């Protein structure tokens, strides 16, 4: 039977989807990219915030319409991932079109689920979250030269606004040797860019080794032949130690890029969010990073309109963004998620105010990005070629300072033949806010 996978949400979820794809391929199923050409469609969902839930439901209903259409082969739907896990008690009644549901820790039951639905049987499995294992054989869905390397999953931080600990369970690290073995296998298959991920990468190892082991892990990864770029994502500021900064600064393979999910800069709001650290401590960490790595690219995310966020708190955030001058910023209007403490807080902020504040931060961040990018005019960057845009008649790719999927692309022309996955030198000739344009040297 032909099986298709739709994976939504974050890169951690994408790795789970890749593990399920590997299991299905090993079991002999034919995998297709177009859901409309499959008999069984798996939707690996996100359920983190309201917009993610809406996207998941929209995808499920779109596939349900294919199932109801006699002109398509679609006959069965399987829903896995965070949405299924979060609403396990009511989701089957709400979505009768779906034939099977799998929870987070039931990822390895995907073959059993496909077998059941192919025999026109309903299937449902929600193993305890403590049985979840982050690793496993994968069938990559990323381009051949890049991969996500999940070193842990789950979260122990318990931020007051976040549902992830309730959805994915406690923080679970993988063994260093297991991670290194996977990275070596990826390199042997042509991957040269590793994007290190977890819900909190800087917490890696605390549960297994009783100490933070990210510096040691990174040093081991740098020894792997064929790996050229190692990028750290989701690094909480309180876990960025002097040792970690030194390891990053002393290894050329580790790109000087750090994704810091800060969420806010007002001490009042940070405390209400149950975030560890103060603005002063965050600034101290950033100063250390920039002292050891002057060219470091810093990415962060902020939440506007958190319950009780005053005009003064918001101004503090604006001033902070102006002062730090991040290279890349993502902004989200606060989403009150059921089951989280913040959803029950007094002083909930009006939606229009949340979004107006979001747009204000985005304007500041965009202006700063444009100003910083203009300093790149005339400079040459190493860029991995990712594709060709036939409408724009130009190539596009990323430098080491751009993470996949979230940081955009660099557009460029080339007078001689080049190939996808090749690293070439591009001279920047034009800047438009976040976008860079150039020509291959």
What does this structure look like?
- There is one protein chain.
- The chain has 3 domains: 2-131, 3-Layer(aba) Sandwich (Rossmann fold); 146-374, Alpha-Beta Horseshoe (pyruvate-formate lyase- activating enzyme); 380-440, OB fold (Dihydrolipoamide Acetyltransferase, E2P), CATH 2.40.50.
- Helix content is 34%, strand content 24%.
- It has helices at 11-26, 50-68, 82-86, 91-94, 110-118, 164-168, 176-188, 206-209, 214-222, 242-250, 267-273, 279-292, 311-324, 351-374; strands spanning 2-7, 30-31, 40-45, 76-81, 100-102, 123-125, 146-150, 152-153, 172-173, 193-197, 229-232, 254-263, 297-304, 328-333, 380-389, 394-399, 410-413, 423-432, 435-440.
- Strand 18 and strand 19 (435-440) form a beta hairpin.
- Helix 9 (214-222) packs parallel to helix 10 and helix 13 packs parallel to helix 14.
- The longest helix has 24 residues, at 351-374.
- The N and C termini lie far apart (48 Å).
- The model has no long low-confidence stretch (mean pLDDT 95).
As a percent range, the share of helical residues equals: 25-40%
Spatial strand arrangement across the major sheet: 2-1-3-4-5-6
Number of domains: 3
Number-wise, the strands total 19
Determine the N-to-C terminus distance.
Answer: 48 Å
The shape is globular
On the 0 to 100 scale, the average pLDDT is: 95
* CATH topology type of the largest domain: pyruvate-formate lyase- activating enzyme
What kind of sheet is the major sheet?
Answer: 6 strands, parallel
Tell me what the CATH architecture of the largest domain is.
Alpha-Beta Horseshoe
User: Radius of gyration, rounded?
Assistant: 22 Å
Low-confidence stretches: none
Oligomer: single chain
The level 1 CATH classification of the largest domain is Alpha Beta
Quick one: CATH superfamily of the largest domain? Answer: tm_1862 like domain
Q: Which structural category fits the helices and strands? A: alpha/beta
Compute the number of helices: 14
């Amino acid at each position: 039977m032909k099986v298709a996978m739709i994976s939504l949400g974050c890169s951690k979820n994408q790795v789970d989807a890749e593990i399920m794809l590997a299991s299905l391929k090993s079991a002999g199923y034919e995998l297709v990219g177009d859901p409309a050409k499959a008999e069984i469609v798996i939707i690996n969902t996100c359920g983190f915030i309201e917009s993610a839930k809406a996207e998941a439901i929209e995808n499920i209903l779109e596939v349900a319409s294919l199932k109801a259409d006699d002109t398509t082969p679609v006959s069965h739907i399987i829903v896995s991932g965070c949405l299924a896990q979060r609403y396990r008690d009511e989701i089957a009644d709400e979505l009768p079109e779906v034939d099977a549901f799998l929870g987070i820790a039931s990822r390895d039951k995907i073959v059993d689920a496909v077998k059941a639905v192919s025999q026109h049987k309903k299937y449902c499995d929600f193993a305890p979250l403590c049985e979840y294992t982050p690793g496993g054989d994968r069938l990559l869905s990323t381009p051949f030269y890049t991969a996500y390397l999940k070193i842990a999953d789950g979260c122990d931080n318990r931020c007051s606004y976040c549902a992830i600990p309730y959805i994915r369970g406690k923080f679970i690290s993988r063994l260093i040797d297991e991670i290194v073995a996977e990275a070596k296998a990826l390199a042997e298959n042509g991957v040269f860019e590793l994007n290190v991920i977890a819900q909190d990468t800087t917490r890696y190892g605390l549960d297994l080794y009783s100490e933070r082991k990210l510096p040691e892990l990174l040093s081991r990864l740098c020894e792997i032949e064929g790996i050229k770029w190692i990028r750290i994502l989701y690094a909480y500021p309180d876990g960025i130690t002097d040792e970690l900064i030194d390891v990053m600064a002393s290894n050329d393979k580790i790109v000087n890029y750090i994704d810091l999910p800060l969420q806010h800069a007002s001490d009042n709001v940070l405390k209400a969010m149950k975030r560890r650290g103060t603005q002063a401590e965050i600034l101290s960490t950033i100063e250390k990073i920039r002292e050891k790595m002057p060219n470091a690219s810093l990415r962060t995310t902020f939440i506007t309109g958190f319950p009780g966020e005053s005009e003064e708190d918001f101004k503090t955030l604006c001033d902070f963004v102006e002062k730090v001058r991040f290279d890349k910023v993502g902004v989200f209007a606060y989403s009150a998620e059921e089951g989280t403490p913040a959803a029950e807080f007094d002083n909930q902020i009006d939606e229009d105010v949340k979004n107006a504040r979001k747009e204000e931060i985005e304007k500041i961040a965009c202006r700063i990005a444009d100003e910083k990018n203009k300093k790149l005019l005339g400079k040459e960057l190493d860029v991995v070629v990712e594709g060709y845009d036939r409408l724009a008649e130009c190539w596009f790719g990323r430098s080491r300072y751009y993470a996949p999927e979230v940081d955009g692309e660099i557009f460029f022309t080339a007078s001689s033949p080049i190939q996808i996955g090749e690293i070439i030198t591009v001279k920047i000739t034009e800047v438009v806010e976040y976008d860079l344009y150039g020509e291959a040297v």
